[in-house]
TrEMBL record:
One of its GO terms (molecular function) is cellulose 1,4-beta-cellobiosidase activity. This is Glucanase. Residues 389-418 are annotated as: Disordered. Residues 1-17 form the signal peptide. It comes from Clathrospora elynae. Gene3D superfamilies: Glycoside hydrolase, family 7, domain (2.70.100.10). InterPro entries: ConA-like_dom_sf, Glyco_hydro_7, Glyco_hydro_7_sf. One of its GO terms (biological process) is cellulose catabolic process. Keywords: Carbohydrate metabolism, Cellulose degradation, Glycosidase, Hydrolase, Polysaccharide degradation, Signal. It holds the Pfam family Glyco_hydro_7. Belongs to the glycosyl hydrolase 7 (cellulase C) family. Its EC number is 3.2.1.-.
Length: 436
């Protein structure tokens, strides 16, 4: 599902097989962010952005022949997972020319479709975290996401001797969907059992997936937004096998070590339809600031959201769903929401808020992305989902104003190739230090 991911590998508490090619120099763009100790007392820091390994050119070692073309592997170079790591190299990236990624000062712009010289790329991944965002150019069917995952800070370089690329080349990705579309996991190829996608010419599903805790700070377009913690019983990155992975890519969505659904707060879904969108309380036709606070620890942790726009601080909308209280994510809120909506509740089985708090305390990697959805057309974010539900009687099925016919990748890619999202002015610090 993730078409392209950008890691900001030096933010927050982040520290420090795949062979490396030499045809394209890997030059990381700098991006500044701020570490705050109190309101008005922030220090600028400089980090780097790096494109995820999954979307890089992968070619035969010492040559130019592709190891992966479209959604199929080169069966000569990649007879199995281990030989693929030995025979193939991932190369550096032309961030702007190929991927439409532009970093300048404290901002990062991700362009949806970029036509390069050799290819067309589609898409571009107790404290307070704040950023400015412009989603005015994101229509139905697109998701400009900013989130944290518990991947290894070095991309798995120390753990796996066959991984020669590491964080510099964006290796080691994982999330709570335990994605099986990754070309390399744990320093080996994901060739064995690979099945090309039937509707995505560039993707497929392999025999392994890569799991870890995920905190979705921001999944949004100009119509809808959601903040969602995804807990895992195994917090750090781990490799899974086949349909036992669970998540979007497996026959049994709930078979794995992670909670694929999470416990989301989407204002529209929680009954307030005039809060977020163009011309609404949070006006998405203009830039605004998103503030996320993590208050307390373990199962008592609360995830609280504010917005700042036009000089005004806007509290998150409160739920109007009968039996569901509040405007923040807590264990009580999740208990009530899952009961009211009749949704499967796997978060507690995977450690709930306690494991999410532990993942945050351990340090996570920031991912910024822009993607379209070949699995469900992004209807789970901005429309009625599942489609056969009636929002008037099936609580929680209404998620945004988009039509159920919207969001098909073929339509989004042809009609909105210039769609963009801009993230800027990232800050992290103690409560109430980064805004106001």
């Amino acid at each position: 599902m993730y078409r392209s991911l950008v890691f900001a590998a030096s933010l927050l508490s982040v520290a420090r097989g795949q062979l490396v090619g030499t045809e394209q120099t890997e030059t990381h763009s700098g991006m500044t962010w701020q570490s705050c100790t109190a309101k008005g007392s922030c220090t600028s820091k400089t980090g780097k952005v790096v494109i995820d390994a999954n979307w890089r050119w992968l070619h035969v070692k010492g040559g130019y022949n592709n190891c992966y073309t479209g959604n199929e592997w080169n069966t000569t170079a990649c007879k199995d997972n281990k030989s693929c790591a030995t025979n193939c190299a991932m190369d550096g990236a032309d961030y702007k020319g190929t991927y439409g990624i532009t970093a300048s000062g404290n901002s990062l712009q991700l362009k949806f479709i970029t036509k390069g010289s050799y290819s067309t790329n589609i898409g571009s991944r107790n404290s307070e975290f704040t950023f400015d965002v412009d989603v005015s150019g994101l229509p139905c069917g697109l998701n400009g996401a900013l989130y944290f995952v518990s991947m290894d800070a070095d991309g798995g370089l120390k753990k796996y001797s066959t991984n020669k690329a590491g964080a510099k080349y964006g290796t080691g990705y994982c999330d709570a969907q335990c994605p099986r579309d990754l070309k390399f996991i744990n320093g080996e190829g994901n060739v064995e059992g690979w099945a090309p996608s039937v509707n995505d010419a560039n993707a497929g599903v392999g025999g392994h997936g890569s799991c870890c805790a995920e905190m979705d700070i921001w999944e949004a377009n100009s119509v809808s937004t959601a903040v969602t913690p995804h807990s895992c019983s195994t917090i750090e990155q781990s490799r899974c096998n086949g349909d036992d992975c669970g998540g979007t890519y497996s026959a049994d969505r709930y078979a794995g070590v992670c909670d694929p659904d999470g416990c989301d707060f989407n204002s529209y879904r929680m009954g307030v339809k005039d809060f977020y969108g163009k011309g609404k309380t949070v006006d998405t036709s203009k830039k605004f600031t998103v503030v996320t606070q993590f208050i307390g620890t373990c199962n008592a942790m609360e995830i609280k959201r504010f917005y700042v726009q036009g000089g005004k601080t806007i509290a998150n909308s409160a739920s109007t769903i009968p039996g569901v209280d509040g405007n923040s994510i807590t264990t009580k809120f999740c208990d009530q929401q899952k009961a009211a909506f009749g949704d499967k509740y796997t978060s507690k089985d995977k450690g709930g808020m306690a494991n999410m708090a532990k993942a945050l305390a351990n340090g996570m990697v920031l991912v910024m992305s822009l993607w379209d959805d070949y699995y469900s057309n992004m209807l789970w974010l901005d429309s009625r989902y599942p489609r056969d539900k009636n929002p008037d009687t099936d609580l929680g099925s209404g998620r945004g104003d988009c039509e159920t016919t919207s969001g098909a990748p073929a339509d989004v890619e042809s009609q909105h190739p210039d769609a963009t999202v801009i993230y800027s002015n990232i800050k992290s610090g103690p409560l109430n230090s980064t805004f106001g």
